[in-house]
């Protein structure tokens, strides 16, 4: 495999992941609009209730949200190095604002 083809596969994979995430967000929001509770959506989708809440409310478009998205890989790496796993990041204003300062 050449570096060019590896880059192409990586790019295609990133685009597929983004489409899948958008599809999940759309489906979760549609279920909520139909009156399903967070708990019901979580059970049916195989997600946790906090993740359902994040899918419904977090858009990641605020300046702080973009910084969190940009820093996610580093945060996950640090948690994994410390023995953690299955990392989920939730935006909680000032606490994470300080944690992701460049």
How would you describe the overall organization of this protein?
By secondary structure, this protein is mainly α. It contains five helices and no strands. It has helices at 3-33, 38-45, 49-57, 63-81, 93-99. Helix 2 crosses helix 3. The longest helix is centred in the N-terminal third of the chain and has 31 residues, at 3-33. The radius of gyration is 16 Å and the shape is globular. It starts with a helix and ends with a helix. 5% of the residues are buried. The model is unreliable at 93-102 (pLDDT under 50).
List keywords for this structure.
mainly alpha, 102 residues, 73% helix, 0% strand
Helix and strand pattern: HHHHH
How helical, in percent, are the residues? Answer: over 70%
Q: How much strand? A: under 5%
Return Rg in Å.
16 Å
Low-confidence stretches: 93-102
The overall pLDDT, averaged over residues, is: 81
Number of DSSP strands? Answer: 0
- How many strands, which pairing sense, and closed or not: the largest β-sheet? none
Overall geometry: globular
Secondary-structure-derived class:
mainly alpha
The end-to-end span amounts to: 35 Å
Secondary structure layout plus pairing:
Blueprint: H1 3-33, H2 38-45, H3 49-57, H4 63-81, H5 93-99
Question: What's a quick, concise take on this entry?
Answer:
This protein is mainly alpha-helical. Helix content is 73%, strand content 0%.
